[in-house]
Amino acid sequence: MLVRSIYRGIRSEFGRNVFGYGCRSSRGISTNALGINMDELPKLHPSLLKRAETLRVELEDLETKITSGTFDQETNVKFSTISSILEEFAKYENYRENVASIIEMLNEENGNDQEIIDDCVSELKEYIPKLISATSKVQVKLIPKVSNYDKPTIMELRPGVGGSEAQIFTNDLLSMYINFANTKRWGWEIISKTEGTLGGLTEAILSVNEPGSYDVLRHESGVHRVQRVPATETKGRTHTSTAAVVVLPKLSEGNESSLLEDERQFAPGEIRIDTMRSGGKGGQHVNTTDSAVRLTHIPTGIQVQQQDERSQPRNKAKAFSILRSRLAALDREREIAEQKSLRTTQVSTTDRSDKIRTYNYSQNRVTDHRCGFSLHDLEGCLSGEKLEDIIEAVEQEEVRERIESL
Amino acid sequence: MARISPRLIKDAYSISPLLPYFLRANPNISLAKQELKWVQEELPQSEWRKAARSRHNLYPLQYILGSQPFGSLDIICKEKVLIPRPETEEWVLRLCSVLKESAQNLSIVDACTGTGCIALLAKHELKDSAKVAAFDISTDAYQLSMLNRDAHKLDVNIVKADLSEPAQLMHICSSFDLILSNPPYIPLSDYKLPVTLNGIEKSVRKFEPKSALVGEMEFYDLLVQNLVRPFGASGFVFELGYREQAEFIRKQFCEEEWGSGILKDYSGNVRCSIGWKRGSNLDILERLCDEVL
Ligand SMILES: C[S@@+](CC[C@H](N)C(=O)[O-])C[C@H]1O[C@@H](n2cnc3c(N)ncnc32)[C@H](O)[C@@H]1O
Fold it and tell me: Where's the Methyltransferase small domain (chain B) (predicted)?
């Protein structure tokens, strides 16, 4: 029964989501003495297999294109992306074949020769974990990308419930994302920031300029909750406060040179631009420093206001960039809602009002409620070094859900 | 400027002890916070308190910080020279985006250039497709505009000259296609009135040069007689503050030869008079008009 226990051990260690599509419970039909069969091992969903096949054909086409002398940037990038996906896929296939042949041996052996069984067991011990990790890696790569996955990111942070403590937490989250960007060596800039009281923030907009960072950071969207004793609390009581994080793909630079292109995205009359009017006659009569610009997207009613820059055109450019991002996010929400309504089982992760994560100071713990993952290193999370562990767990959970809904 | 309640001062103080000083110059606390933030970002800490006191005295923020953004340029600002206005920035940018589409070898002059902002931004935007010159009567303006030109390394010919002296203007260039100007346009009667009665802000009256502000029709008359006509220009954009000024300018030109219109600013106020010689390559200026006269 040794193999079964290894198998169970692996199962409990890695969690059920690593087993990929179609894993049966261990009560499935056993075809060998040790009660293990291929159906119980991780395997890819048929539609992902089909996608791998499509990619293989595509790669061949690209190969002929390149050997016939086409050498443009786009073809090259495509070629290297696809080959790296197929490399992962080859690993997966390789491990699966290995494991299959070991199991086949076990089947034929039927439990008579202890030495062979021992060999098989030790090989399974080596290969099953490898198969598991290869499966989850290739799944992430084969699953269709979300739109704008290759874009930089805009993150909007605002305090929720909890007064000034929520404002301080908003500032903590901002630092966490800046630290995270620094550890990844991603460029970033603060687009705007409004300070509240006691070192807190009433709003912050952060731009992470690395292309593709959106696909990582989008998992941070949602309500974050903190449980701790505020510095101002005299009786030592723990408070619960929240901050909301909205993550958007960044579609334009948001500077004077991108402004023209951004404005062109909209039909005349689609946007109302309000500049804070200077009093009276304006012009030489007054000297205003109010450079705020507010955009209203008339069809959706979305409003964006920017005032951090002393330059009005710069505020306008930033506002346009943020507006485009928000509209892209809205498109994506609609897309998800449509997909959901086609499905019978509801995916619970993307509800805006849901708390996605809790930062518990007294327990030194960060728990992500979407995947149940807990990191017992709050400091490491806030310093940006361990945040990726959480994001990866969320990503895996998302992949699992998406595969289930395929 | 609204009355400042003790409550507001208390609230401001709880955010920063320096913030109350910014309340007098600003209509609300969020703008005051914004100004304090800019001061803290741009000046060394040792100067914050002095800056706050000056601002309490309604001293212009741009003189405190030493600059004002104008398009993508940071224009150096100093006492005795008018601070560039956002309304001016707006029309200059609009003008440049129209000219960029079809301008070729334009010769432009900016009369009464002050800090040099109009001429410098035009050169910055239009690059080699335009030759730009500028002049001002004031020595302070002349020196500051030179300083700004050098800071941005822009090829603009700047001269100290008086718009009312044709002989001085002759030295600048033999001909100009396009005349730009933001001359003093506030009638003396309004110069003395508060903003609420269509007059001017206290801070402007107290700290910006009167000679850059007070004027009525005479400057437009000079611009037409001493620049547009003798230099054979085929277009002009003149900033102004009153519809009467636009109508006055319109009357200087015969309708068969010249088209003319009004540009309004982002607040909906009449802001520029625009003119173009019919059939010339500057009839594209018509696109800037919110109203044809
Ligand atoms: C309203 S300010 C405009 C400054 C600048 N063009 C701007 O838009 O910020 C008017 C300028 O006209 C200048 N000025 C006044 N009388 C003048 C004259 N007779 N000839 C040339 N410049 C004159 C003043 O020195 C002042 O700099």
Answer: 96-210
